[in-house]
Amino acid sequence: MKTEGYPMENDEKIRELIKKYIFNVSYALRNIKKKSEGHKRINEVILLSQCYLNDARYYLEKNMLSASLACVSYSEGLLDALRHLGFLDFKWPHPTERKKVLVGGTFDIIHPGHLYLLRKAKSLGHVIVIVARDTTVERIKGRKPVIPERQRLEVIKSIKYVDEAYLGEKDFDLEKVLEKYKPDIVLLGPDQSKIREKLEEIIKKKDLSIEVLSLSSKFRGYTLTSTSKIIEKILKLFG
Description:
By secondary structure, the chain is of the alpha/beta class. It is built from nine helices and seven strands. The strands form two sheets. The protein has a five-stranded parallel beta sheet with strand order 5-4-3-6-7.
């Protein structure tokens, strides 16, 4: 789809700029300090700003970049107007402030695909990895992981792209995870579409300022880029 008013070849650059714009306005909304408490109209304008921001996210997802840019601009404009009138104050994120990037997975037998995902996460900010519990893996995949959960966690902690790593919730409650770690971004692998749907549902319901990103494809630099392929090869060689 060609974005009205912009050459098609610039669409990806515009998309990235809009994402940054949305993040900045989200950050401002989270850090508002009201100077006139109890003023109903002020709250209404702040709510309207949030609504425009939600619309910006929606249009961005639909690749309607002009509409998305317009909505996030309106959202920012409303906040700026309130600030100039002296009704509230807020701050924009510092250029060096790193976003919190949440990544989750089994990470059973580490392979280049995992490293590709974590390297991408690192390029986006401060990486927090949630390693799935053994019981969660067995429930979702129908088999136990090859490597026990604490050993998988230790391996992940040793990878240079990872800033923090923790075992996941035993009941695999995504809502609890988002509340606990408060990420700015959740980065998913290309095969985590069901989790993406659930995340987007929670984000919409809770009106959270979280960006969900997915890798477009699996890493193809090597042949053994999935745990299942590695297991298959081991069975062929030693089974």
